[in-house]
């Protein structure tokens, strides 16, 4: 599952998947651990479900088109790739401009996630969260400097919060809808 | 206690790098997708599959497959933070990590020093879990659900 926040890793999501067509739901559940590494992965997914490979592929394409699946891709472990500096940068951006600027800075190299989130005043004035990834803290700070310039006067303050310890990281976990209490 | 430490950078050869770079962008939805990608990378399909399996086993890739959009699957998701007193940090870590809804938990260097992701079966359940975490820790949870998503796409070139 790939909906991360601070980190860039897959997040397990327990959804009942009730909004999905039952066959789509079966496909999602069958691929939660990953896509089979065989020449025809679509047939491999479809076989236990009684679906032809072409049907699986067409359904996955539709789920991509509708946004249920973002894409089918490799999720790297950023530390193993040498991206040891992961900075959650947080910015206090004028509400009148945050939407436009959020879209602008989203395309800057090194940015993996960019969200608007609520402030909690007075403790937490930051409303724009941008995750940056670099091979060193210097690199992350250079990326942050590019962001600061782009945000300009609309940004009052910012911080870079590096992760200093992973306290927990669990794998993918989707709940099945059948037989579970609502 | 569930404390994961940072894995060390892996040694990758040129073919591994091409695979990692190419497959972060996505697999094409064609009848023989691995063969198609292998051809782009001047590898055989068998070699691509073999290397991909090895990259997963070695933890260079944490996963290969569809990346789902949590909210569109009906789940609830939020980012939350705590200001944990240093003396209590280990105890609070154990308490927070014990909640199955806590997917990720990171220590970060700020007054708000614990940051975790909550993933729940329904959006409604988020508030209940936050209340339970506040009761169990005696601390105020700063809930920071995303209000707008501008970009979600990790691409780490190697």
Q: Largest interface by residue count?
A: A-B, 93 and 89 residues
Largest sheet of chain B: 4 strands, antiparallel
Mean pLDDT of chain B: 92
Strand content of chain B: 15-25%
Q: What portion of the residues of chain A fall into strands of 2 or more residues?
A: 15-25%
Mean pLDDT over all positions of chain A: 86
What gyration radius of chain A follows from the Cα positions, in whole Å?
Answer: 20 Å
Can you tell me the residue ranges of chain B where pLDDT is under 50 for at least 5 consecutive residues? Answer: none
For the record, the CATH architecture of one domain in chain A stands as 2-Layer Sandwich
Describe the strand arrangement of the main beta sheet of chain B, using strand numbers. 3-4-2-5
Q: Given the C-alpha coordinates, what overall shape of chain B results?
A: elongated
Please give the share of residues in helix of chain B.
25-40%
Q: What number of structural domains do the residues of chain B give?
A: 2
Radius of gyration of chain B: 20 Å
Strand order of the largest sheet of chain A: 3-4-2-5
Order of helices and strands of chain A: HHHEEHEEHE
Number of E strands of chain A: 5
Q: What structural class results from the helix and strand content of chain B?
A: alpha+beta
CATH class of one domain in chain A: Alpha Beta
Protein name (chain A): siroheme decarboxylase
Pathway (chain A): Porphyrin-containing compound metabolism
Subunit structure (chain A): Probably forms a complex composed of NirD, NirL, NirG and NirH. All proteins are required for the total conversion of siroheme to didecarboxysiroheme.
Keywords (chain A): Lyase
